[in-house]
Amino acid sequence: MNPVTTTSMFQRHWNPYLVLILAGILSAGYFGLTSTVWAVTGEFTRLGGEILELFGVDVSGWQYYQMVKLDGDTLTRADGWIVWGMFTGALLMVLLSNSFKIRLPQQKRRYLQGFFGGIVAGFGARLALGCNLAAFFTGVPQFSFHSWIFIIATGIGTYFGAKLSQTRWWKGRPTLTRGTVKPSKINNRVIQPYLGVALALTYASLLLYFFTTGKSLLGLGALFGLCFGILIERGQICFTAAFRDLFLVGRSLMSKAIILGMAASSILTLAMITLYDLTPITQVAALSTLVGGVLFGFGIVLASGCETGMMYRLMEGQVLFLPVFAGNVIGATFLAYAWDHLGIYNVLVASGKKINLINSIGPVGAIISTLTMLAVLYGLTLYREKNYHRHILLKRAAK
Amino acid sequence: MEKKKEADFTLDLRGESCPYPVIYTLEALESMNKGELLQVITDCPGSFRNVPEEAKAHGYTFAQEPVKNGQEYLFYIYA
């Protein structure tokens, strides 16, 4: 038997706590090395701009593209390589574990739901200036206050998303058949791990090329992107589930792991900021953060995945996430258009302010308040889980 | 070897993504009579973990260990 497939490391999913704490440490390290954060949707917006330019649309005058800097192309931007690195890292794990399979949803409505949810999530994320990464997992450790608003808003949005996804017309009826159904026949020709090794070698030479030709920023983007992709796939990290499953089935695993990962990342990031005298990355906190966060939360539940979760699921062969990806890019690009052309900036953003906790209450106050906020979130998570299960027990006892 | 009990019902979830495998599984179990056996076939990687964990958390028991069948998992759960 193939030695790679028998290695248990690739046969099992990794503990989400371990994975998210590692991701938190790595993202703090990436910030220390490059002064930028792990983020993806900004690049989705740029991708949308590049596609429009292919069709002859001149987006250079759009304010949003001046703000997020549309220079070069996706292969000459470190942010671009974060995205392609994540796709590669996820695909690599999928191939090495022999788990790629084209998965087509039985419920055809999922494609439309994914596309629609993807648009709403892409639009909301960019309106708030970040998705579950820059306005959440890597936003909190930057002590950017906009991420606090974003987390609460995402919670509200996912709540309504969960409500909608529980309605019969949305979730559809499963096919429950009588008796036993034969599972799929297993294909004994295992070729995916070999493709995985080929991919790893190709990507390693690309990294070597970047670092030996003085393109170390691209190299770092490609390397960290790869690691993030590996981690999110192996840990099955799902920010959508962190909120949604608490509301749907009282499941708390992902929320707790994300909160601990953010705590680790916050402490390390503060160390980076003080040791190397770095400027934390702060985004505007405004009405747009609240509205964007609610839309984002609502959209990710409808789409069954956020911008990060979509990436590894697509690599696993879950076809549903093709329309989600397309929706994300379309939603983000539409926001870039609406920013100045439809007056979104003036109505929702202009009155806002960049608030960084380090500047407003000092580094000690910043870390204490951040850890307190995370502890409160952790407490709320436990409370919801307990409450749900008490309710279920009563319901089963009454049955 | 003792002959395994035949499943009374099968929930074929191949192709469905999260959270629907969990929702559908819990719904199916709720609709069945106590003691009946449900076979679940799923291929969403997220469900390999959340389906068995949530079935247990909701008070259901397993007839046997989960079976890994290529890129899918089979679960046998008593309602």
TrEMBL record, chain A:
Protein name: Selenium metabolism membrane protein YedE/FdhT
Keywords linked to the UniProt accession: Cell inner membrane, Cell membrane, Membrane, Transmembrane, Transmembrane helix, Transport
Coiled-coil residue windows: none
Gene: yedE
Domain of life: Bacteria
Recorded family membership: Belongs to the TsuA/YedE (TC 9.B.102) family.
First-listed, main subcellular location of the protein, grouped into a coarse class: membrane
Bilayer topology annotation: Multi-pass membrane protein
A Pfam entry, by short name: Sulf_transp
Transmembrane intervals: 17-40, 81-100, 112-137, 143-162, 194-211, 217-236, 257-278, 284-306, 318-337, 357-380
Intracellular or extracellular location(s): Cell inner membrane
Automatic annotation (TrEMBL), chain B:
Gene3D superfamilies documented for this protein: TusA-like domain (3.30.110.40)
Domain UPF0033: 11-35
Pfam annotation, one family: TusA
Range of residues in the leader sequence: none
SUPFAM superfamilies: SirA-like
Family: Belongs to the sulfur carrier protein TusA family.
Alphabetical list of PANTHER family matching this protein: SULFUR CARRIER PROTEIN YEDF-RELATED
Listed name of the protein: Sulfurtransferase-like selenium metabolism protein YedF
Organism whose genome encodes this protein: Denitrificimonas halotolerans
